[in-house]
């Protein structure tokens, strides 16, 4: 089986599992995951934070974003463009967001573009990931393209039940520095071992 076929099978497994999990309330777990992010020294040191804005089926990042503003952080979020291209824009509150491509909340047109070099820490989404920090996305390649050539530390957040034994990876797949679930904080990439 090719890597692409493996990824397709893994996405199918995750989506089936998500359907079975859909009726549960995830508020307490999501809060615990966000608290895990907030506990990282990399977050505390960072002046500018990159974070995805969650969809209903994803881990709710609104609490994390609001806490980052309270902590005086500069917050940037992604906006997707054509052909897998993504850019980051500064937002000052949830009111700076509107439904964009794919129904994802994105920064409004007046939000300022922020260069990747200005970002100190990133929170990256996944459908699933493994304990080594390799993520399984939706397959659009937006995050892998965006992260290519950046050097800010990254944390991927995932529900414990959706973790994979091993993610099928391709040469362009980017390894994250931390994997955070509601049960643990895993420091996985060499060079970022402090919590």
User: How is the biggest beta sheet arranged?
Assistant: 8 strands, mixed
- Reading the helices and strands in chain order gives HHHEHEEEEEEEEHEEE
Bin the strand percentage: 15-25%
Task: Provide mean pLDDT, rounded.
Answer: 90
Fraction of helical residues: 25-40%
- What's the CATH topology label? Rossmann fold
> What is the strand tally?
12
Low-confidence stretches: 191-195
Number of helical runs?
Answer: 5
Features of this protein?
22% strand, 8-stranded mixed beta sheet, NagB/RpiA_transferase-like, disordered C terminus, two-stranded antiparallel sheet, Rossmann fold, 195 residues, globular, single chain, alpha/beta
Report on this structure.
- There is one protein chain.
- The chain is α/β, with parallel strands linked by helices.
- The protein has a single domain (3-187), classed as NagB/RpiA/CoA transferase-like (Rossmann fold).
- The chain starts with a helix and ends in an 8-residue tail after the last strand.
- Strands 6-3-2-1-7-10-11-12 form an eight-stranded mixed β-sheet. Strands 4-5 form a two-stranded antiparallel sheet.
- It has helices spanning 3-21, 27-39, 41-45, 62-70, 142-147, and strands spanning 48-51, 74-80, 86-91, 97-99, 105-107, 113-114, 121-124, 128-129, 135-136, 154-157, 178-180, 185-187.
- Helix 2 (27-39) runs parallel beside helix 4.
- Strand 11 (178-180) and strand 12 form a beta hairpin.
Summarize the structure.
With 195 residues, the chain is an alpha/beta fold. The chain has helices spanning 3-21, 27-39, 41-45, 62-70, 142-147, and strands at residues 48-51, 74-80, 86-91, 97-99, 105-107, 113-114, 121-124, 128-129, 135-136, 154-157, 178-180, 185-187.
